[in-house]
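Morning F.,

Quick status update on the modeling queue. The single chain you submitted on Monday has been processed. Sequence for confirmation:
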Amino acid sequence: MLLAFALAARAQVQVDISLKRSLYILFEPILVTVTVTNLTGGELSLADSGSNKWFGLQVETADGRPIPPGGGEYVNPPVELGPQQKITRTVNITPIFPLGEFGSFRLKATVFSHQTNRFFNSPSLNFEITEGRVMWQKTVGVPDGSPGAGTLRTISLLSHRLPMSTYLYLRIQDPQAGTVFCTHQLGRFLTFGKPNVLLDEKNRVHILQNVAPKAFVYSAVGLNGEVLDRKSYNEFSSRPALRRGSDGSVVVVGGQAFDPNAPPPEQTLPSIADRPVDIPGLRKAPKPDEKRPENLLSR
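Structure tokens below.
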């Protein structure tokens, strides 16, 4: 009876957690999706109560060592859920927890109900943090007139092999202050070719990668991690490439730009009138030996 009561109490609030994958590179955004479902049979009020936060995440190492969040106090807005209603939120845990080391970790979401004075936990998820392979790296200065002028930036282009394909990443960090400005996933790329990388007159990085046969993606990123431009190209009449102009700017030459999210052109189905008309006198009668056999299964 005690076991049945405990299971019933735990099932009052269902907490589910999911990750898109289980393998990440260092400093990459790790997006956690948490879904809370009200199974109490009545109204459920979720709100912070004293030191108990109604929503929280817990991270620990594979050997059970807890990793406390690096941020300070936070406030969760109250939520009201009716019977069988649910709420879903996505959280990037990379800036919250100090996950600056390689290894395996466990993640769990916790919801506190002040109505029942009880915590409800999600199942644990395992994920691993590793490092990509450096394909290109350069340390440059931030020019005058730009945010952070006078400081340094280390720009790294990394490849990361996932089960189905290889992805390209761009990381920009301040080697002196230890600040990581971005670790952008630029998308898939074909490993038999190297990405084209150039810096412009303001040391902004421009990357052209081959994402599929005859398909390319161009990205321009500033020294503080801001994405300045991103376009898709195909090898229509010539192969696209990066070129530096006389003024130091970088542009894409060749290829043809296209919108990968644009709907495909509408195709009309052929009608009966579109069938070719026989030319009189060209149709020949079948020869006797060309007569269709009578013992075929399909006719």
